[in-house]
Amino acid sequence: MKLVLASNNQGKLVELQALFAPLGVALVRQAELNIPEAPEPHRTFIENALAKARHAARASGLPALADDAGLCVEAFGGLPGVDTAYYATQFGYEKGDGNNVRALLEQMVDITDRRAALVSTLVALRSADDPEPLVATGRAPGLITRQPVGDNGFGFDPVMYLPAFGKTFAQLPTEVKNANSHRGRAAQQMLELMRERWFAPAPSAPS
């Protein structure tokens, strides 16, 4: 089964492709189908993910999978949230992972409450007009470090410390990160939903 991934993020594609491989699902980025990115005007992950999935499904005619994810910092009332990808631009930096990390550490330099969570919401649609989207949310709580540590992963991985492992996401092997990341947890839920709702054999009607 082929699904269009409503994202042009190569890191997301690699992570999700590995996670969905057991179902025989092949993900293709919307950019490869010449589909432009959808507007993301909403203030919640689920609303933006649904908008992106509907846009990709309508433009491609294929089932679609969309992810909206971000960092929710306790001391900032859950922000930057849906604005995570553009976080650095609020402080005069160009958009980019490195600048996002730099801006976050600068804004938290005097903050002692380092609690935060990476959150991912996945939405899958059989078609653009699917009235029953599959929705899965994964949350990976941790603490923001004072300096980046590790060189694996992307985004905020180098500053997201996980007490259970005693390491940041960027220090974990890929397979361990995928199993415990916000996106990994959401994807595991989505796999179960797809198995149950999309791939389960049809039961026989009583005679």
UniProtKB/TrEMBL annotation:
GO terms for molecular function: ITP diphosphatase activity. InterPro entries: dITP/XTP_pyrophosphatase, ITPase-like_fam, RdgB/HAM1. It comes from the Bacteria. Substrate binds at residues 7-12, 69, 154-157, 177, 182-183. The active site is at residue 68. Binds 1 Mg(2+) ion per subunit. Transmembrane segments: none annotated. CDD domains: HAM1. Its cofactor is Mg(2+). Keywords: Hydrolase, Magnesium, Metal-binding, Nucleotide metabolism, Nucleotide-binding. Mg(2+) binds at residue 68. It catalyses: dITP + H2O = dIMP + diphosphate + H(+); ITP + H2O = IMP + diphosphate + H(+); XTP + H2O = XMP + diphosphate + H(+). Its EC number is 3.6.1.66. It holds the Pfam family Ham1p_like. Belongs to the HAM1 NTPase family. Pyrophosphatase that catalyzes the hydrolysis of nucleoside triphosphates to their monophosphate derivatives, with a high preference for the non-canonical purine nucleotides XTP (xanthosine triphosphate), dITP (deoxyinosine triphosphate) and ITP. Seems to function as a house-cleaning enzyme that removes non-canonical purine nucleotides from the nucleotide pool, thus preventing their incorporation into DNA/RNA and avoiding chromosomal lesions. Homodimer. This is dITP/XTP pyrophosphatase.
